[in-house]
Design goal:
It is built from twelve helices and 23 strands. By secondary structure, it is α/β, with parallel strands linked by helices. Helix 10 (316-326) packs parallel to helix 11. It is elongated.
């Protein structure tokens, strides 16, 4: 039994086996699927878990309430890692009433073919009385699906936040942040946000405005720890990320076939460092999973990308990364670029095309194009690019 506060219990599960979240994002530390039980005059379950874990999930629920029935199931988010057990829950608790908004029920019918005339449809600001407490529902569309909402237990200062304020990483014994060392979760929160929620900065800001001024002691997300000691910090992280705010620093990422383009990246990084920028990360786009690169592009303001020409076009992995980045709708970033070719020049022009048509970042420095291998002139131009980015960042220091 894992109590949070005032008859609110954690009944979620850990997934340490899945290799890729959503088939895309690496999970080196696993992930949790969080669900919560409120035990009042009426019993309310908040979200479910991925269906593969239903047996364990049911045991967790029964450990808290034994054979008592569940009166309500609140569905904050219909993504299957949170809604996957709905159909089975309804089999074990046939009188349960599902609480959601209009879009919730359309998706529930589409995913699982289940519905009931006793289901409770709620709108923004609607309330549900459980006896000793009242739940308030706040619709937060496009954070990050159209049906998303959050549930507030104002009397106990608890927010059931759906995917908001979540992060990658299984829970290793403790459930509440005060019970654990949270150091491993902070960068995983940024990676989670940047890859999954990152496109939806404006909806996140809208959601934060709806919740502004609401006193919170606990944030119960559907992934990661229950936030208690760090409530202010995690809200601040989501606020900054959704505003596309950044730190001073440079992400240098490159593609390379035989090491020549890599040499350009190393020279650029060295020049930026010598010019006074300390936060510099360098990635080979064919080796490092793009989710980590995108995470750091969200963190740092400067981006320098480079790749060789391949089959008279742009090196594939760089083309994929720029496509992924274009879908994030990021703002307030700086970009420089470089490239190489053996016999047909194309990479530099293709990178510029990506920025002109999709990214719209502020271009810094002169692009560098190298034919075949490094010479003194190419080295000098690479140094100038790294220095230009560094000086542009340093100019913004307060």
């Amino acid at each position: 039994m894992k109590a949070i506060t005032n008859n609110i219990y954690y009944v979620g599960v850990n997934d340490r086996n899945k290799f890729l979240f959503e088939g895309l994002w690496p999970l080196p530390n696993g992930v949790s699927y969080n669900s919560y039980l409120i035990v009042d005059e009426k019993i309310c379950l908040i979200d479910t878990v991925e269906v593969d874990f239903f047996t364990q999930y049911l045991e967790n629920i029964r450990e808290v309430i034994g054979d008592r029935p569940i009166d309500y199931l609140v569905v904050n988010h219909m993504e299957p890692d949170h809604s996957g057990s709905i159909a089975l829950i309804k089999k074990y608790y046939p009188d349960i009433r599902v609480v959601g908004n209009k879009k919730t029920f359309g998706m529930m019918q589409g995913f699982y073919g289940v519905s009931s005339p006793s289901d409770v449809e709620v709108k923004n600001g609607d309330k549900l009385n459980l006896g000793g407490r009242e739940l308030t529902f706040v619709l937060t569309p496009m954070v990050h699906w159209p049906e998303t909402m959050v549930t507030l237990d104002a009397a106990n200062r608890v927010l059931f936040a759906g995917d908001a304020f979540g992060c990658f990483g299984a829970l290793n014994g403790g459930i509440i942040d005060s019970e654990m060392n949270c150091d491993t979760f902070w960068l995983e929160m940024v990676r989670y946000y940047s890859n999954i929620v990152g496109k939806y900065g404006t909806p996140v800001q809208n959601a934060l405005k709806k919740l502004a001024g609401v006193p919170l002691d606990y944030i119960c997300s559907t992934h990661g720890p229950v936030w208690h000691d760090y409530v202010e910090k995690v809200v601040g992280i989501y606020d900054r990320l959704s505003r596309y705010e950044s730190e001073e620093g440079i992400v240098i990422c490159y593609g390379t076939m035989y090491g020549n383009t890599e040499r350009m990246a190393e020279v650029i990084a060295s020049a930026a460092s010598q010019a006074g920028v300390k936060n510099i990360v360098v990635y080979n786009v064919s080796k490092t999973h793009h989710s980590y690169i995108l995470r750091d592009i969200f963190r740092y303001k400067g981006l320098i990308v480079g790749a060789p020409t391949y089959n008279t076009s742009l090196y594939h992995e760089m083309d994929v990364l720029l496509s992924e980045l274009a879908h994030k709708d990021m703002k307030n970033r700086l970009i420089g670029w470089f490239g190489s070719y053996g016999w047909a020049s194309k990479a530099v022009a293709k990178i510029q095309e990506w920025n002109d048509t999709a990214l719209h970042f502020e271009a810094v420095g002169e692009p560098v194009e190298m034919k075949q291998a490094m010479d003194a002139d190419t080295r000098s131009r690479c140094e100038a690019l790294g220095k230009a980015m560094a000086e542009r960042l340093i100019a913004e220091r307060g």
